[in-house]
């Protein structure tokens, strides 16, 4: 079932009634922050980490989230419950709120908070089995000293533009480089490569969001005994990698089997990627903040 009830600044409203002022600076200027989370089997995965990132993003743009993290936890689990969802994607948005046509946020009275929970699969199921095509794009990742990639702001134009470039090029996802030509991330996902048994991912200071899935994969890889390195690499390193995969809350873990027309190894998702995807799937179903604690307790009893 898709979401019927949306949390909108203090109340649950039906999807068709969930509307925001055209004077909201989130709409007028992309002034606000957001998070994307997932609930698996009634458990919200890494809720605390997502809330930490949301509040850090908000702090960075001097936006005060009008709820405590405890309140936000209840709002998020409450939205899942209200829609009777077991497994779904959750979007949390905090916008600056309605102001006037000037861009000064001082004119905005109060932030608006929206929580949506609904089923979402980023790519068709067969791409998870086959792997996707990745293409590098001309647009560079935002420089950290201009608009930090760590701020998950409503200004996602940089990412949208690369998605347009990927669509134009006929590939499934974009590969973004930074202004020095080093690989950073995809349009909404982090990148890993595997070479001679070692797993590499770029350090986030090069211009990638510190993905929560990324951090989970690093943890799982280390627990499983893989050699894991955060190290800068270039397109060339991606072309000649044994495996390439992307991670993100929405995409989860997905292999890339073609990069700029270069087939990666034998053109099929590799062993390490498949192993980490399995470990990830296990971890997400056994970890997380419960949305239905009473049901779980009565099942256990
Ligand atoms: N990079 C960008 C630009 C993103 O928008 C996302 C999605 N939040 C990611 C990486 C992956 O982060 P996470 O694993 O926390 O979803």
Automatic annotation (TrEMBL):
EC primary class: transferase
InterPro entries: Aminotrans_IV, Aminotrans_IV_CS, Aminotransferase-like, B_amino_transI, BCAT-like_C, BCAT-like_N, Class-IV_PLP-Dep_Aminotrnsfr
Keywords: Amino-acid biosynthesis, Aminotransferase, Branched-chain amino acid biosynthesis, Pyridoxal phosphate, Transferase
SUPFAM superfamilies in UniProt: D-aminoacid aminotransferase-like PLP-dependent enzymes
GO molecular function: L-isoleucine-2-oxoglutarate transaminase activity; L-leucine-2-oxoglutarate transaminase activity; L-valine-2-oxoglutarate transaminase activity
Cofactors demanded by this protein: pyridoxal 5'-phosphate
EC nos: 2.6.1.42
Metabolic or biological pathway, per its Swiss-Prot or TrEMBL entry: Amino-acid biosynthesis; L-valine biosynthesis; L-valine from pyruvate: step 4/4; Amino-acid biosynthesis; L-isoleucine biosynthesis; L-isoleucine from 2-oxobutanoate: step 4/4; Amino-acid biosynthesis; L-leucine biosynthesis; L-leucine from 3-methyl-2-oxobutanoate: step 4/4
Enzymatic reactions: L-isoleucine + 2-oxoglutarate = (S)-3-methyl-2-oxopentanoate + L-glutamate; L-valine + 2-oxoglutarate = 3-methyl-2-oxobutanoate + L-glutamate; L-leucine + 2-oxoglutarate = 4-methyl-2-oxopentanoate + L-glutamate
PROSITE patterns recorded: AA_TRANSFER_CLASS_4 (PS00770)
One GO CC annotation: cytosol
Pfam families in alphabetical order: Aminotran_4
GO biological-process terms attached to the record: isoleucine biosynthetic process; L-leucine biosynthetic process; L-valine biosynthetic process
Entry function: Acts on leucine, isoleucine and valine.
Family: Belongs to the class-IV pyridoxal-phosphate-dependent aminotransferase family.
The protein's name in its UniProt record: Branched-chain-amino-acid aminotransferase
Gene symbol of the encoding locus: ilvE
């Amino acid at each position: 079932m898709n979401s019927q009830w949306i949390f909108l600044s203090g109340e649950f409203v039906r999807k068709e009634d969930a509307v925001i002022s055209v004077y909201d600076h989130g709409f007028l200027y992309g002034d606000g922050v957001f998070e994307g989370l997932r609930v698996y089997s009634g458990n919200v995965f890494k809720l605390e980490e997502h809330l930490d990132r949301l509040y850090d993003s908000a702090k960075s743009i001097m936006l005060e989230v009008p709820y405590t993290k405890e309140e936000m936890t209840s709002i998020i689990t409450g939205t899942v419950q209200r829609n009777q969802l077991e497994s779904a994607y959750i979007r949390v948005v905090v916008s600056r709120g309605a102001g006037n046509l000037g861009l000064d946020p001082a004119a905005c009275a109060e932030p608006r908070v929206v929580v949506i929970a609904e089923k979402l699969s980023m790519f068709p199921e067969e791409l998870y089995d086959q792997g996707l095509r990745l293409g590098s794009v001309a647009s560079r990742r935002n420089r950290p000293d201009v608009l930090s990639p760590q701020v998950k702001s409503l200004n996602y134009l940089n990412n949208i533009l690369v998605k347009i470039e990927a669509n134009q090029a006929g590939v499934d996802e974009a590969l973004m480089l930074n202004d020095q030509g080093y690989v950073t991330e995809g349009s909404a996902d982090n990148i890993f490569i595997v070479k001679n048994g070692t797993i590499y991912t770029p350090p986030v200071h090069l211009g990638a969001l510190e993905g929560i899935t990324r951090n989970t994969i690093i943890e799982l890889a280390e627990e499983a005994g893989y050699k894991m390195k955060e190290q800068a690499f270039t397109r060339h390193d991606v072309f000649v990698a044994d495996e390439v995969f992307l991670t993100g809350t929405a995409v989860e873990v997905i292999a890339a089997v073609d990069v700029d027309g270069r087939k990666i190894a034998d053109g099929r998702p590799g062993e390490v990627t498949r192993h980490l995807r399995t470990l990830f799937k296990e971890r997400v179903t056994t970890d997380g903040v419960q949305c239905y604690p009473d049901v779980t307790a009565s099942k256990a009893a």
